[in-house]
Every structure is written in structure tokens, then in C-alpha cells.
Write a structure and sequence with these properties.
The complex is a heterodimer. Chain A is mainly α. Chain A contains eleven helices and no strands. The longest helix of chain A is centred in the middle third of the chain and has 32 residues. Chain B is α/β, with parallel strands linked by helices. The radius of gyration of chain B is 16 Å and the shape is globular. The chains are: A mainly alpha, B alpha/beta.
């Protein structure tokens, strides 16, 4: 039964993720007092990339990009099939490694430099991503998503610090804030087009597709903090997911020129303070 | 979905006085808001569909223009913005100027003006989009994207006669 839910994610994920990305672009435009693109613009971009000729620079690139897509899908499938959340996070990390290697496989200097910064970005977000799994374990006593959603009280009550830490790295994970890291969505940035600089045509379409999956996956991680055994909590989860996505757009437009040096200091510090503090408090509470 | 619903622009400044560049940048500001047509000003030729060039071509930037053009995947269109990009403008007789952009790469739309207004630049890009769709249709039929075979004529420095390149 739960496996079916996983497959529903595989089918619906990109549509919802693409829609989230479209809403993000419209909101972003309105914040800059522009009219903005049509809501379905990301799908038009995807269709265009699929129709363009692809300049494949080496045979490895196709394999790596496909791997990137497959492991993002797997990460989502694991989550929705109610399996181990640790595995889901590992699968997400692996998929990002694939994208990174695809960028390293190109000989273009911008592509290589972006891949290095992508690694830097992963160094910033990975500790907190792992802490998410630990947080869910502390609140439910299990890494299984089925047990996490079956709790009487939602995870946010026990681990609000982990949630706040997650919000900070989410800006980086969704490629929003540091404009000079890998591939942010801003038109003019230091790294041309980041890790996707040398990816063309249908391969770029696949990268866009996996990005939509990632969008929806992140939305789901946020919602997971609010879901409990009460069916109504699902609604709260979806609402909070939307709210957090709006917050990400707001942060992106408020701090458009954050650099990677700042990302390094902010991400590690917040992980230590929020997640570490929460961890310490929970341990202390258990002792007394 | 048509390819012209998501045209990404690559902007390159040849040897212009920067007047047209300022106007191109003006048309990407919130006031004119190009993104409502799905247009994104990208810095990556490998993602671009529309090549927007301002200023004439000289012997130094000729290779750059040709390389940028060759890095753009088909279908693609070139828009020459401003009179200098169209045929060299006031710099036409300078010793270092080859001429308009069409001396080194095929141009699809010419937007004259000194400097070209944002309105006419947007107009030119919209015209180019129709050509972009036509090229895509030709590609779908298994034909080469361009209808006409393009040949360039370059005046070498020091000689007045035109040579086929």
C-alpha cells in the first residue's frame, strides 16, 4: 500500500515541484514590482530544452545526469513509501554528487569551478541534513517514516531547533541565496550558470526535472515536521510547507548578494547552535 | 509547447559606444519586465536561444562572436541591435572595424537606431521569436535550421577588395 504512495510521488512530484517553482518565480517578480512570467513558465522552459539540440561533451555526462535524476526520485520514493529517512537523505546526497561529477567531467573552467563550490555547498548543508534524521529519531525513536508520522505529537514539538537549522540550510539547498555558489537562479552571477554551464538540450531538461523533484522533496521534509497520527495534521503540514516556500522566496529577495564565505560561517554556526542546542536540551531533559 | 515561450537571451557587446548596451539593460529592468514573455537574460551561450549583439565587429572580437555563436545549440537566432551592429554605423570606415555583425555570423533580425530604444529592442526580439519557431519546425522536418545558405564577405585590412572567407 505504502509502496503505491511512493510511485504516486514519482508521477506527481515533478508537476507539483514545477508548480512550486513557477509560483516562486511569480512571487519573486511581484516582490520586485514586476508582473513576472506565467505560472507554467518552468514547464515551457523544460519543453524548450527538450526541443533544443544537445551538445554532449562526453559520454560520461549523460550517465551522470541520468544518475542524478534517478537518485533524487529514489530519495522521494523512500520518503513516501514510509522507509528509512536516513536512506532518503543519503540518496539525495548521492544524487548531488552525480551532478557535481557531471560538472567536473566537462573541461570548461567555469563548470569545474562551480563543481568545487557545489562541494563547498554540500559541506555546508550535509551536517544539518544528517541532523534532520537524528532529530526525527530523537522525537519518534525510529528512523522509519511510518513511525515518524504515527507519533501522537508532531516532531516540531520535540525538535524545533532542528527545524530552524533546517530552514537556514534550505535556502542553500534550494539554490536560493548565495548567488555565487554553483547554480543559483539569478541571471547574473559569478559562475555563469554554475554546474549546468556545460549541460545543454535534453540533458538540461533532465536537470530541471530533477530540480522539481528536489523542490517537492524539500517541501515534504518540511511537512514531515508537522505530521502526526491526527489526519488533520496533514493539512497543517501542507500549509506550513507552502509558508516555508514563501519564506524562502522572501529571504532570496531580501538578501540577494550573500556570498559563499558567509554561507560557510552561517550554515555551520546555525547547525551548531540550533541543532546542537536542541540535542543538548533533549539529552538533559531525559537525564532528569 | 512552442520553443518561443521560453527564449533565453545572450547579450554580447561588440565594439559599441555602450549606448545600445545601456538600452538592452534598460529593457531587462522591472519597468519593461522581459520575464513576462519568459525571457531570461542568461550568461551562458549553451542555454541561450537568442543572441543579442550590440556594436560592430572588429578584428579582435570577431573570434569571440563566432565562438559564442557556435556554442549556442540549434535552433538559434541572432538579433543585431543598433546601427553599428547592423552595418558598422559611424565606425564603418575605421581601420579596425570589419563592419556589421552579418560579416562574421548570419543575422536574422536587424534593429536599427542610435541608440536603439528598449521598445524597438523588445519588438526586434519578438520578431526573432517567430523566426526561432520556424527554424524549430524545419529541424523537426529533418532540414537544416536556416533557409538560406550564409556566406560572409570580409574586407581585409590594407586591401580594398572584398574576399570570400
Amino acid at each position: 500500500m505504502l509502496y503505491v504512495l511512493g510511485f504516486i510521488f514519482v508521477i506527481l512530484g515533478p508537476f507539483l515541484g514545477g508548480l512550486l517553482s513557477g509560483v516562486d518565480r511569480v512571487f519573486s517578480a511581484r516582490m520586485q514590482r514586476r508582473q513576472g512570467p506565467p505560472l507554467l513558465q518552468p514547464f515551457a522552459d523544460y519543453a524548450k530544452f527538450m526541443q533544443k539540440k544537445a551538445y554532449i561533451i562526453n559520454g560520461l555526462q549523460t550517465f551522470l545526469i541520468t544518475g542524478h535524476l534517478i537518485f533524487v526520485i529514489l530519495a522521494g520514493w523512500i520518503l513516501y513509501a514510509g522507509q528509512d529517512i536516513l536512506l532518503s537523505i543519503f540518496s539525495l546526497t548521492l544524487s548531488e554528487m552525480f551532478l557535481c561529477m557531471a560538472a567536473f567531467s566537462a573541461s570548461a573552467p567555469y563548470s569545474n569551478m562551480s563543481a568545487q563550490r557545489e562541494l563547498l555547498q554540500m559541506a555546508c548543508t550535509e551536517p544539518m541534513l544528517l541532523m534532520i534524521a537524528i532529530g526525527f529519531y530523537l522525537s519518534s525513536g525510529s528512523f522509519m517514516v511510518t513511525d515518524i508520522v504515527a507519533q501522537k505529537t508532531p516532531a516540531i514539538i520535540h525538535v524545533p531547533g532542528f527545524f530552524l537549522g533546517f530552514l537556514v540550510i534550505l535556502v542553500v539547498e534550494l539554490r536560493k541565496s548565495p548567488f555565487d555558489v554553483s547554480t543559483s537562479h539569478h541571471a547574473h552571477q559569478e559562475m555563469v550558470k554554475g554546474v549546468t554551464t556545460d549541460i545543454t538540450g535534453s540533458l538540461m531538461g533532465i536537470v530541471e526535472l530533477s530540480e522539481w523533484y528536489e523542490y517537492f522533496l524539500m517541501f515534504s521534509y518540511v511537512a514531515l515536521y508537522f505530521v502526526s497520527s491526527n489526519p488533520l495534521s496533514l493539512l497543517v503540514g501542507i500549509l506550513m510547507g507552502c509558508l516555508v516556500m514563501f519564506l524562502m522566496t522572501l529571504i532570496d529577495n531580501t538578501f540577494p548578494r550573500v556570498r559563499w564565505e558567509r554561507m560557510l560561517s552561517v550554515c555551520w554556526a546555525t547547525t551548531l547552535i540550533f541543532a546542537g542546542g536542541n540535542l543538548l536540551l533533549l539529552t538533559l531533559l531525559k537525564m532528569f | 509547447m512552442k520553443i518561443s515561450k521560453s527564449p533565453w537571451i545572450l547579450h554580447y557587446d561588440g565594439s559599441s559606444c555602450n549606448g545600445c548596451d545601456i538600452e538592452v539593460l534598460a529593457s531587462t529592468t522591472p519597468r519593461y519586465d522581459l520575464e513576462r514573455f519568459g525571457i531570461i537574460n542568461t550568461g551562458d551561450p549553451k542555454h541561450a536561444d537568442v543572441f543579442l549583439i550590440t556594436g560592430g565587429v572588429n578584428y579582435q572580437n570577431r573570434d569571440v562572436v563566432q565562438q559564442l555563436y557556435s556554442q549556442m545549440p540549434d535552433p538559434k537566432v541572432v538579433v543585431a541591435v543598433g546601427i553599428c551592429a547592423c552595418d558598422g554605423g559611424v565606425f564603418k570606415d575605421c581601420y579596425n572595424i570589419i563592419g556589421g555583425v552579418d560579416k562574421v555570423i548570419p543575422v536574422d533580425v536587424y534593429v536599427p537606431g542610435c541608440a536603439a530604444r528598449p521598445e524597438s529592442i523588445i519588438d526586434g526580439v519578438v520578431k526573432a521569436l517567430a523566426i526561432l519557431d520556424k527554424k524549430r519546425e524545419r529541424m523537426a522536418q529533418g532540414l537544416v535550421p536556416d533557409e538560406k545558405v550564409w556566406t560572409n564577405t570580409i574586407v581585409r585590412p590594407g586591401s580594398q577588395e572584398k574576399q570570400e572567407d
